[in-house]
Amino acid sequence: MKLFDLTGRVAVVTGGNGGIGLGMALGMAEAGATIVVAGRDAAKNQAAVKQIQGAGAKASAIPVDVLEEESCRALIADTVKAHGRLDILVNNAGMSIRKQPEQYTLAEWHTVMDSNLTSAFLCSHAAYPAMKKGGAGKIINIGSMMSIFGAPFATAYAASKGGMVQMSKAMATAWAKDNIQVNAILPGWIDTALTRRAREQITGLHESVLKRTPAARWGVPDDFAGIAVFLAAAASDFVTGAAITVDGGYSVQG
């Protein structure tokens, strides 16, 4: 179906070498997109590229340190130089430091905010001219259930992900005139390296997630392939400024 066809499109996925990012990259690749995997770990980048190429799609890797402004801007510039265009940007890179709020240092606060939110702003800011020149663009920002709920161990993370949703709405209103749609995805509890560490640190987390989730399971990265294709494709051309939960029903339970 042409509404979901990404043939000829170029997509950058930060944090695309594993977890949710790789799940989204594989989905878009299957729909025909050329994928640029962006991450700090060169070995993981190449493993992800190999996996995407093994599925019959085009992929390459560009190293990026999202804590560095010049690295974020170089990622976009190098993508356009290599492929001649940029159609889709997925701002997925993120991390968390789990502590009570009074235990944070200012440096730790900045690390989380810069990794999760500032990097998404910088990459989007750098992507805008290429998307405007191309006459269209899709920006997909990865928020979190912590955009909706509070948690005592996630003050900086929640602030960054709440900011991601509001930034998406603001950019959506600013760039609609340029045919650029900006949306956010709010993952629930997904089985990734990040949440495996959370389960080690937070007693009873696994059981509480299963109890509250109507789907009665943790999500997996493959659960994000479809929503990625939808938000990257023509099917979502009249969808912008949205924050879409992908959580197995977790957020609708009282």
Integer count of domains: 1
- CATH top level assignment: Alpha Beta
Task: Output the number of helix runs.
Answer: 8
Number of distinct beta strands: 7
Helix content: 40-55%
In short:
Helix content is 45%, strand content 15%. The chain is an alpha/beta fold.
Features:
254 residues; alpha/beta; seven-stranded parallel sheet
Description:
There is one protein chain. The chain is an alpha/beta fold and 254 residues long. It has one domain (2-246): Rossmann fold (3-Layer(aba) Sandwich). It is 45% helix and 15% strand. The chain is built from eight helices and seven strands, in the order E-H-E-H-E-H-E-H-E-H-E-H-H-H-E. It has a seven-stranded parallel sheet with strand order 3-2-1-4-5-6-7, sandwiched between helices. The longest helix has 29 residues, at 106-134. The model has no long low-confidence stretch (mean pLDDT 95).
Protein topology:
Elements: E1 10-14, H1 19-30, E2 34-39, H2 42-54, E3 59-63, H3 69-83, E4 88-91, H4 106-134, E5 137-142, H5 155-175, E6 180-187, H6 193-201, H7 205-212, H8 225-232, E7 243-246
Parallel strand pairs: 1-2, 1-4, 2-3, 4-5, 5-6, 6-7
